[in-house]
């Protein structure tokens, strides 16, 4: 396992995060998963207030070793469907959700608190100031945001910079070979602002693991009949690269995401699956550029405006002059 710095902070986080969304009770298998992840060098556990009993399970599984982990959870979704103020990114819900999560997780602080989703009904100024307050209180060390437009994150971090508040150090997005939308605005923004990116859905609900590629494959999270030709083309490319390297399809799909600079969140159901996924770290360092090109060329993806247009203009002597080829730019 290798490590990166979280955003523009000094916090060391493992390149692979462990997602705890599916854990509903403490079982011997769940303990094996957490033990294996720790033994591999993994140190980030990601959960959320809305993931059922996940926070309770994580709190129990980390008991006695909590400080060795970067513990992350999320707030925004409702705590009480009958109360409008029990949801959203405003100060009241933040404070009450945070206290609830701390109790469930059996800890007096969070390493990382994510805003779970953009709340268009709450001014971003209120959210950022409230987040800064819980950081100053010592109950939260770092903050991040999930599932939000690039302009919202940019505005939030600019406000934080101007006013001396705590900025977002992390961004959480869906990202895979089959869903690359975030390359248009969100990933360039994150690179420009120095924000770390965590990715969920990297295996596209198991499609990129190749589990549905065989004739007669049983339905699980996805019905094999629902997988279209575009997705099947990507799966074939992943399987071809995996066969050439002597690794699994899941490792190739995760390794591709690692090479794109993001932190895949591993949503594993058991220790054997986690062991396979952890192997993506080594595969990422051995993945040839030619293989990456083949993977990305297997399915159609257009950056669209303004990305394509600006990229074309950037190479144009009509805009920047005839000496453009001599410029060593960014």
Quickly list its features:
330 residues, eight-stranded parallel β-barrel, TIM Barrel, 10 strands, alpha/beta, single chain, two-stranded antiparallel sheet
Description:
GO terms for molecular function: oxidoreductase activity. The protein is globular. The strands form 2 sheets. Strands 3-4-5-6-7-8-9-10 form an 8-stranded parallel barrel, surrounded by 5 helices. The chain has a two-stranded antiparallel ribbon with strand order 1-2. It contains 13 helices and 10 strands. The protein is 41% helix and 14% strand. It is of the alpha/beta class. The model has no long low-confidence stretch (mean pLDDT 94). It has one domain: Alpha-Beta Barrel (TIM Barrel).
What topology does this entry show?
Elements (H helix, E strand, L loop, with lengths): L2 E3 L6 E3 L2 E3 L8 H12 L4 E3 L7 H8 L8 E6 L15 H15 L4 E6 L8 H13 L3 E7 L3 H14 L4 E7 L11 H8 L2 E5 L28 H17 L3 H11 L3 E4 L4 H8 L1 H7 L2 H9 L9 H8 L2 H4 L10
Helix pairs in contact: 1-9, 2-3, 4-5, 7-8, 7-11, 8-10
Enzyme class: oxidoreductase
GO molecular function, one term: oxidoreductase activity
Protein name: L-glyceraldehyde 3-phosphate reductase
Structure at a glance:
This protein has 330 residues and is α/β, with parallel strands linked by helices. The protein contains 13 helices and ten strands.
Determine the N-to-C terminus distance. 30 Å
Counted by DSSP, the helix tally is 13
> Strand order of the main beta sheet, please?
3-4-5-6-7-8-9-10
Radius of gyration: 21 Å
CATH superfamily: NADP-dependent oxidoreductase domain
The parts where pLDDT drops under 50 for at least 5 residues are none
CATH class: Alpha Beta
Number of spatially distinct domains: 1
Describe the global form. globular
Compressed to H and E, one letter per element, the order equals EEEHEHEHEHEHEHEHHEHHHHH
Q: Structural class, from helix and strand content?
A: alpha/beta
What share of residues is helical?
40-55%
User: Would you report the number of β strands?
Assistant: 10
Q: What would CATH call the architecture?
A: Alpha-Beta Barrel
CATH topology, by name, is TIM Barrel
| Mean of all residue-level pLDDT scores | 94
Classify the beta-strand content into a percent band: 5-15%
């Amino acid at each position: 396992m290798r490590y990166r710095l979280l955003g523009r902070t000094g916090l060391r986080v493992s390149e692979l995060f462990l997602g705890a969304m599916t854990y509903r009770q403490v079982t011997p298998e769940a303990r094996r998963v957490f033990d294996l992840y720790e033994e591999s060098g993994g140190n980030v556990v990601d959960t959320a207030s809305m993931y059922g009993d996940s926070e309770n399970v994580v709190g129990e599984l980390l008991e006695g070793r909590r400080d060795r982990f970067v513990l992350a959870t999320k707030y925004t979704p409702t705590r009480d469907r009958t109360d409008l103020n029990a949801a959203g990114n405003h100060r009241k819900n933040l404070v009450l959700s945070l206290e609830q999560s701390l109790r469930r997780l059996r800890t007096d602080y969070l390493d990382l608190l994510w805003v779970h989703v953009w709340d268009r009904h709450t001014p971003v100024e209120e959210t950022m100031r409230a987040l800064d307050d819980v950081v100053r209180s010592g109950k939260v060390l770092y903050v991040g945001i999930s599932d939000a437009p690039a302009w919202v994150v940019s505005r939030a971090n600019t406000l934080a910079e101007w006013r001396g508040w705590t900025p977002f150090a992390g961004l959480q997005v869906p990202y895979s070979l089959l869903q690359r939308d975030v390359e248009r605005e969100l990933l360039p923004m994150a690179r420009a602002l120095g924000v770390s990116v965590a990715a969920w859905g990297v295996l596209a609900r198991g499609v990129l693991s190749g589990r549905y590629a065989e004739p007669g494959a049983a339905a699980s999270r996805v019905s094999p009949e629902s997988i279209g030709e575009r997705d099947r083309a990507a799966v074939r490319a992943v399987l071809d690269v995996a066969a050439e390297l002597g690794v699994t399809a899941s490792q190739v799909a995760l390794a591709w995401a690692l090479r794109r600079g993001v932190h895949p969140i591993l949503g594993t159901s058991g220790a054997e699956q986690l062991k396979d996924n952890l192997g993506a770290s080594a595969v990422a360092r051995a993945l040839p550029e030619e293989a990456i090109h083949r993977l990305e060329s297997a399915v159609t993806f257009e950056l669209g405006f303004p990305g394509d247009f600006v990229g074309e203009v950037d190479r144009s002597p009509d805009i920047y002059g005839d000496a453009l080829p001599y410029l060593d730019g960014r």
